[in-house]
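Consortium newsletter contribution from the modelling node. Members have asked for a concrete example of what our holo predictions look like. Here is one, prepared for the glutamic acid complex that several groups have been discussing at recent meetings.
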Amino acid sequence: MDNKYKKLADAVFPDIHKSIDYYEKLYAPRASKGKVVTRFAPSPTGYMHIGGLYVSLINQSFAQKQGGTFYLRIEDTDQSRILENGVTEIINTLNNFDIQFDEGPISETEDIGIYGPYRQSDRKEIYQTYAKHLIKQGKAYPCFCSKEDLEKIREEQISSNSSIIGYSGKYAKCRDMSPDEAIKRIANGEKFVVRMKSPVTGMNRVVVKDIVRGEISTEDNYIDTVIIKGDGLPTYHFAHIIDDHLMHTTHVIRADEWIASLPMHVQMFKMLGFEVPQYAHVCAILKMDGDSKRKLSKRKDPEARVGFYFEQGYPVVAVKEYLLNLINSRFETWREQNPTTSYKDFEIKLNEMSKSGALFDLAKLSNVSKKIIKSMTDEEVMSQVFNWSKTNSPQFYEYIQSNPEKFLQSITIWHKNRMDIAKWNEIETQFSYLYDCDFKNKLNADNELCDMPYYEEILTEYLKSYDSKDDSTMWFEKVKAIANKYNYAVKTKEYKQNPEKYNGSIVDVSTMLRLALTGKKDSPDIYQISQYLGEDESLGRVEKMISLVKKKDRDKIECVI
Ligand code: GLU
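And here is the predicted structure:
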């Protein structure tokens, strides 16, 4: 080691006394050497984007399916963008979506795992030790250039049509500064950053490997990238190299916005003498906007925010199964072949992922979700709705809590053999006739079916003949008798053969009743609905509808007069 570089390193980092050997020993290879190690490394800068959930799911499933380790690392070196409680937000989101990590922060202050701390802001000394090591070897240096100096360099490069743009080679003013001068300037209290000395100073092509994209031939990094900023904290680029090395990450699976930095990252790993992990850059989640595709945007698309799915009440498994569809299209066939197996058993293949972007479609998510809800038992639905409503619909929560058994009965009505619901917040709106105590007063007679012949008479007859003790067969026999009395065909086939002979068919009569009980033309079984509502409520609605129809008729007459 050159003594002058050692002096420079001491001047740059006077408070760093440990050597890199200390950390290499402290973070010795994992006992599970040879097994996959992945990580999710978000910055706590705001709510989590669905892309973050997507990447974390890939990392978790990929590692855990192979008996490996998945850990959470908080990348908070850009202190100006950190959000208060940002770590809690990340932990809660992962928790809500059952993304379990083996190591990492479990609260704003606590970690689990022996490769921590897992927050980059707590690892400052480690990064500085490695940066000091690089300076000692002449592979990094302090740079005193101001913003204005950098701007000048840029202008010079542009005006001279230089193929090199950025802090590099002969343009990197501080790169070849003598250690003595640098030491003097530090002693003078001049501000500086630390840059790595890129071994490449001109145009050079390099091949980098990516599991999703294959071999990528690209321009090598010739920039002397900043590794330690003016505040003493590392840049993301440097921090992730040190962390992934010391935490023994085998696969870096992350968003493809980092692919342009890959040559620089590989270069850094090699400069430090570290083994380069395998990289997999995952495409962004896209959506159709008119005829073109674009990235899901935090600003424009509510579905970009992970909290959206939770608030709306999509079952967690539905969101995850839909994301697995996007990760590997093979998932759909796998699901058909293994209808009852947990999605956790699906094996993600990174090399089968799309190179161009996964197209997100809420309608497809709804289909997946409807199937999953259908496959649940009424009790499972009940427990999920109960938990969801606790934080997302206090009124509904109270309703369920006031009579859980009755609520369970109501689930059977819309759940058995039906696929109406894709998310829990649809229950109250789609089936308000089951849950709204004031539903009667919201009925109207606007539907054109209310103008069919004998509507009022049919409802009146229904009132008279109703007996809450009737079973469904008896109940339907009575409805058929009423239909017959007012010349509505009891057999639809006969009606279809001779429509002019009848006022309508039994289907119309059922729909008339349905309108009175539910306000809708379509609904689950109306016998079950009336049983659930009870005699008073269901007959009350029929009476109300009769009065609405009468009023409508009166209004019509007045209009004519
Ligand atoms: N902190 C980086 C981000 O949030 C993580 C990139 C990585 O996974 O290496 O984008």
